[in-house]
Amino acid sequence: GVRRFPEALLATGFSYDEGEALRRSIRMFQAFQDHGQTLRRPGAAALDLAYVASGRFDGYWESGLKPWDCAAGIVLVKEAGGRVTDYAGRPYEIGGYDILACNGHLHEEMLRMLKPFALCPRSGSTLPHHHRQGHAGLMREAQVKGSTAGLIELS
After folding, report:
1. Which residues pair with 102 in a beta bridge?
2. Distance (Å, whole) CA 35 – CA 26
3. Could you tell me the pTM of the whole model?
4. Which of 52, 58, 67, 151, by CA, is between 20 and 30 Å from 78?
5. Going by C-beta distance under 8 Å and a sequence separation of 6 or more, which residues neighbour residue 71?
6. What is the pLDDT of residue 118?
């Protein structure tokens, strides 16, 4: 993978949720586009992550993925020496709402671009001025109501 941000080929996906989640995805895409990045949106998270691991893509970000969308790809990226975090730079946890994966060389610069969209871990709202309930918040809400049906925990 490349070591300089201006030469990077990045990929992303857009939320299937309507409303604020989709607008947030478009704002992130626009932030990278305004920075002059070459961007792709293939549409399959597992393939995008495999491409990061293989070096075809230098970085990838997306929000709202399910564990089955990204679990195998995360293993590939990590085994290839890449980094996988959320937008605040915290280690990505399966079931997390935001994922950033890259070749390792560009991670800090991509984080700088995505941090304004990072979700607060407890409230689910973004830092500091966007509002959105994150996947972790939805999981807590389901657990409080006593229903965890459909939730998957991988260790």
Report:
1. 59, 83
2. 14
3. 0.74
4. 151
5. 94, 154
6. 86
